[in-house]
Design a protein that fits this description.
alpha+beta; single chain; five-stranded antiparallel sheet; globular
Length: 746
C-alpha cells in the first residue's frame, strides 16, 4: 500500500503490469494502466519509474504512439530497420530497438505499393506487422521515416571492373555502398572517405558519391575522423562564434576579487589541451579549527566570454562538450578561448570563478563561498611532476613550490581523504589505456594510464567544489544543472547478485543498496585473481550518470547533491552552473538568461545525449587506433581475460594493451556450447568445458581491422575450466580438448 497517497488498494506488482500489457498488446499506454489499476496522484511517478525499469529489462517495449507491448514480441505497428535481403531477393527487416535478451524477430517486407517509395537496405520504416510463425513476421509499409544515412564514412575499395565499394566504418552496418567511377573523386583503394548516398541501386546496394578523401586507412588522421564523421560531431564553428572569439579581450580586475597573491597551480595530464582549474591550500588560521584547512579551487570564467544567446553560446550548446581523441580534440569553444583566454596559462592574468572552502582536521567541509576573481597561475604541473615532488624527487619547477604549494595541497588532501573514506563512494578500480603517438603521428605504444595520489587529490578537490556549487545554488533558489546518478536497476542488481554467488560472494539482500555495500564486495576480492572481473561486473550493474534540473542525488559518489562546476571550457553543463552562480551571487554580467531558465530540461537532454555521443566516438577511435597498432602483429600470442560472454563467442581483454577482441564460438571446438547467462559462461554440453567471465586465456591474434576497430582471436590450447571447476575463476588452464578442430557455434 502507498503510504504517501493513502491508497486503500495495493499497487500492482511488476508481473501484474507485464501480464496486463501481454493481454492488451499495442492497445494500452501509461494512461490506460493507471486507469485500470486506479493509480493517481503521486503514485503516477512510481508507475513511470516501474515502467522504465521494465522497459530497460526488456519485459515491455514502447510501440507506435507510445503504446506498450510485451518485450519479446512486436506490436501491430512497429519501427523497423531494413537490414538485407533473403535468397529470393525479398527485403528483410528487424526492430529498430530490441531490449529483450533473446534474438530479435525477423520481418519479411511485403512489396511496396504503387504510390509507396522503393525501400532499400538501411531505411527506417513504420510498418504494420503480422505474425507468420515463431519469431517471424510479415511487414507492410505504412511510411518510410528515414532513408539510409545521407552521409557515410568508410573505406573505399576499387573493383577490377572500375566500380568502387565503400565499407562503412560502423560495425553495425551489414552492407556496402556502390560507387560509380565518375563519383569516386579520384579515391584510391584503402582510403577513408566521406560520402553521400544517392538514389538508385546496383545489385541491391545503394549508390554513394565520395565527398571528401580523409586519408589512408591506418593513418591517425583518418582513424579519428571516421569517428567524428560517423557520429556527426560538429567540427566547424559558425562565423558568428569565430568572430566573437577573435574579438574577445582579457577581463579587467574591476569588481573582481584580486587572487593574484595566491600561489594557485594547475595540475593536469601531460597531454592536456586546456587548463581550466587551479588549486591552492593552506592551514586554516582560525584558532577554532585546529588542524583544519582553507582550500581554493579556481575555475576559468567562461561565462564572462560566452554570453547567453550569442553565436558562441549557440555553438557550445549544440556541441555540449569537447571530444578527445588520441591525436586531436574537437573543442566545445574556438581555440581563441579554449587554448588562450579561458585557459589558465601560467603567468598570465585570467578571469575565474573561485570556491573558497574550509575543512576541519577530519576533512568535513565547514563552510564555503564563491567569488569572481582575477588570478595568475604560478605553475602548470603534470600529475607525475606533482607526485614526484611530494615523494622527494623535485625538479626546477617544483622545488620553489614545495613549502608554499605542494606540501599544503597534500596536507589538505589527507584530511579530505578521511571524510571521503567515511562517506564510502563507489570504489571501482579498472585500468585505463592510453595511446602514445610517435613524432610521425603513428602509434608507437598502447599502455596502461598511470594513476597517482596527485590524480586523487585533484579529483577530491573538484568533487568538493562541485558539491559546494550545488549547495550554493539550492540555497540561492537558483536553477541547477545537477549531475545525477540513479541507483542500479533492480534486475541488474539481481543478475549481479546471482553471478557473485558463483564466486561465493554475497551482496546484501532485502535492504536499500549503498555504494558501501558494493565496496565491501570489491574489498573481498582485492589482490585476488577475481579482482578485475568483479570490478567489471559491478561497473556494468551501475546506471549511467546524466544531467538533470531535478536532483535525485549521486549514487556512485554517495552524495545528496552534486553538479559539474569545474570544466566550463569543455562542458556546457558547467557553464550553466557558472551562470547560475553569477546570477544568484550578483557577481556581474554573464548570468542566466530567460531562455536558459525556460529550457533547462531540454538542455539537460541535449547535453546528456552529446556526452554519450562523445564517449562512444572516443571509444571507437581508441579501438581503431589499437587495431591499427595491432595489425602488424597478426599471429602473435597474448595473455588476457574473458571480458564478455555471448551466444556467439567470447570477448577477451588483453593484458598488454587492454584491447578487446572476439573469439568466435565456432572456433572453440566441435561440441555444442550453451550460454549460461547467470554465470556469464559458455559450457560445453558434452565435456562440461567452461569458459567464464574473468577467466585467463592465451590467445593468438588472427585479424585486426582498423576500419571497424575489431580484433579477432584464436584460442590457444583449450583454456576452458573443467565441469568440476565451472564456478571457479583462476589463472590456471583446464584440460585441452581432445579434438581441437573448428566446430559449429550450434
Amino acid at each position: 500500500m502507498s503510504e504517501r497517497s493513502g491508497r486503500r488498494t495495493p499497487l500492482p506488482s511488476k508481473q501484474q503490469l507485464v501480464e496486463f500489457v501481454r493481454a492488451n498488446p499495442g492497445k494500452v499506454g501509461k494512461r490506460e494502466i493507471a486507469r485500470a489499476f486506479h493509480i493517481s496522484g503521486a503514485d503516477r511517478l512510481w508507475l513511470k519509474s516501474v515502467l522504465k525499469e521494465l522497459s530497460n529489462a526488456g519485459d515491455i517495449a514502447l510501440g507506435h504512439r507510445r503504446q506498450l507491448t510485451p518485450g519479446d514480441t512486436l506490436p501491430e505497428v512497429a519501427l523497423l530497420d531494413i537490414t538485407g535481403t533473403d535468397m529470393d531477393g525479398e527485403l528483410l527487416a528487424g526492430p529498430a530497438e530490441w531490449k529483450s535478451d533473446g534474438a530479435p524477430p525477423r520481418v519479411i517486407m511485403a512489396p511496396a505499393g504503387r504510390d509507396q517509395p522503393a525501400l532499400g537496405i538501411g531505411d527506417r520504416v513504420l510498418a504494420r506487422v503480422t505474425p507468420l510463425g515463431p519469431k517471424l513476421y510479415e511487414g507492410r509499409l505504412i511510411r518510410r521515416l528515414q532513408a539510409a544515412p545521407d552521409e557515410i564514412v568508410g573505406v573505399y575499395r576499387q573493383s577490377p571492373r572500375g566500380e568502387g565499394r565503400i565499407q562503412p566504418a560502423d560495425k553495425r552496418a551489414r552492407h556496402e555502398f556502390a560507387v560509380r567511377r565518375e563519383h569516386s573523386a579520384g579515391a584510391l583503394s584503402g582510403e577513408v572517405v566521406l560520402a553521400e548516398t544517392l538514389a538508385g541501386r546496383m545489385h541491391g546496394l545503394r549508390y554513394a558519391k565520395v565527398k571528401e578523401r580523409l586519408g589512408r586507412i591506418g593513418e591517425p588522421r583518418s582513424l579519428s575522423l571516421m569517428a567524428v564523421h560517423r557520429h556527426e560531431i560538429p567540427t566547424r564553428f559558425s562565423d558568428a562564434a569565430l568572430e566573437e572569439a577573435e574579438a574577445a579581450r582579457p577581463a579587467k580586475l574591476a569588481k573582481r576579487d584580486d587572487l593574484g597573491g595566491l600561489p594557485l597551480v594547475c595540475i593536469d595530464p601531460e597531454d592536456a589541451r586546456d587548463h581550466d582549474d587551479a588549486v591552492f591550500a593552506e592551514p586554516d588560521a582560525d584558532a577554532k579549527n585546529v588542524g583544519g584547512w582553507h582550500v581554493v579551487v579556481a575555475i576559468a570564467d567562461v561565462s564572462w566570454y560566452v554570453r547567453p544567446g550569442s553565436g558562441l553560446d549557440r555553438d557550445a550548446r549544440l556541441r555540449g562538450n569537447s571530444v578527445y581523441f588520441p591525436d586531436r580534440v574537437v573543442p566545445m569553444l574556438p581555440e581563441a578561448l579554449s587554448a588562450d583566454l579561458c585557459s589558465l596559462v601560467e603567468g598570465e592574468p585570467r578571469a575565474c570563478l573561485a570556491a573558497h572552502m574550509w575543512f576541519d582536521a577530519d576533512g568535513n567541509k565547514l563552510r564555503h563561498r564563491f567569488v569572481r576573481g582575477l588570478m595568475r597561475s604560478r605553475a602548470t604541473l603534470t600529475y607525475a611532476q606533482a607526485q614526484d615532488a611530494h615523494d622527494g624527487r623535485h625538479d626546477a619547477a617544483t622545488r620553489p613550490l614545495m613549502d608554499t604549494v605542494i606540501k599544503p595541497l597534500y596536507g589538505a588532501y589527507r584530511a579530505m581523504q578521511k571524510a571521503r573514506d567515511k562517506r564510502q563512494p563507489l570504489a571501482i578500480d579498472l585500468p585505463e589505456r592510453k595511446v602514445l603517438l610517435g613524432e610521425d603521428g603513428y602509434i608507437r605504444a598502447v599502455v596502461p594510464r598511470e594513476r597517482f595520489d596527485s590524480h586523487r587529490l585533484i579529483e577530491e578537490f573538484m568533487i568538493q567544489a562541485n558539491v559546494a556549487a550545488a549547495e550554493t545554488l539550492e540555497a540561492m533558489r537558483q536553477p541547477c544543472m545537477y549531475r545525477v546518478h540513479e541507483e542500479p536497476a533492480v534486475d541488474r542488481v539481481e543478475a549481479l547478485r546471482t553471478f557473485l554467488e558463483t564466486l561465493d560472494l554475497r551482496l546484501a539482500k532485502g535492504q536499500r543498496l549503498t555504494a558501501a555495500q558494493f565496496n565491501r564486495v570489491l574489498a573481498r576480492v582485492a589482490g585476488t585473481p577475481h579482482e578485475h572481473l568483479v570490478n567489471e561486473v559491478v561497473l556494468r550493474a551501475q546506471a549511467q550518470a546524466v544531467y538533470s534540473p531535478e536532483n535525485i542525488g549521486h549514487f556512485g559518489l554517495h552524495l545528496r547533491r552534486y553538479a559539474h562546476f569545474t570544466s566550463p571550457i569543455r562542458r556546457y553543463a558547467d557553464l550553466l552552473v557558472h551562470r547560475a552562480l553569477v546570477t544568484g551571487g550578483r557577481l556581474g554580467e554573464g548570468g542566466l538568461s530567460q531562455f536558459d531558465v525556460e529550457n533547462f530540461e531540454a538542455t539537460a537532454e541535449i547535453i546528456s545525449a552529446t556526452e554519450r555521443r562523445a564517449m562512444t566516438a572516443e571509444r571507437e577511435a581508441l579501438d581503431r587506433f589499437t587495431a591499427a597498432f595491432m595489425s602488424s602483429r597478426i599471429g602473435a600470442e597474448f595473455g588476457g581475460r574473458i571480458s564478455g560472454v555471448t551466444r556467439f563467442g567470447l570477448f577477451v581483454k588483453l593484458d598488454e594493451t587492454g584491447a578487446d577482441g572476439l573469439i568466435p564460438i565456432s572456433t572453440l571446438g566441435t561440441e555444442f556450447f550453451e550460454h549460461d547467462e547467470k554465470r556469464h559462461a559458455l559450457v560445453g554440453k558434452r565435456s562440461g568445458t567452461t569458459y567464464q567471465l574473468g577467466q585467463r586465456l592465451e590467445v593468438r591474434l588472427s585479424e585486426a581491422d582498423p576500419v571497424t576497430g575489431g580484433l579477432k582471436f584464436d584460442l590457444i590450447g583449450g583454456g576452458g575450466a573443467s565441469r568440476k571447476r565451472a564456478g571457479a575463476i583462476s589463472g590456471s588452464r583446464g584440460k585441452k580438448p581432445r579434438n581441437g578442430s573448428r566446430g559449429s557455434r550450434r
